[in-house]
Amino acid sequence: MMRKTSIALALAAVIGIPSLLLMLAHRFAGNGTGLQTGQMLPPAQLIALDGRLVDTRSWNGVPTLLVIIQSTCRACEREIEGLKEVAPSFPGLGIHLLALDSANPRVPTGFPVLADPSGQFLRKVRRATVPTLYLLNSEGRVVYVRSGQRPPEYETRVLTRLLSDEDQ
Hints:
By secondary structure, the chain is an alpha/beta fold. The protein is built from four helices and seven strands; from the N terminus they run αβββαββαββα.
């Protein structure tokens, strides 16, 4: 009888613990679809690395690029480097990085790095792939979504087209 109980407990641990971890990870990560083109960015209070509170509503009035990154992601590092190349071409564009994890990218970014300790905002905006870029118009509406890293020249073409549409 004791042996059957031990086997049952071991089996429950083998099956139950990974299932529980998967369930918790899915709950924190959201459904992986994030925001879609045409949706409004939900308001949120995020925390910058320097400790100040950043309200996403303060971005209204300015086209904004919100880039979701993870500090251990090589593609995210390359994306940040590419953004450094293209940013001077778009002086009126606000660029903010939202870190999924420690909010400590391994490369100096030159852009504000934000964190969402509660995970509530991330559950609404996170997609399954990082980096994820959301271009918001001056009203806070998503006009462009891209997941995965692209070359800087690609980003320059897309942003130029979309931001010129915004001006009209």
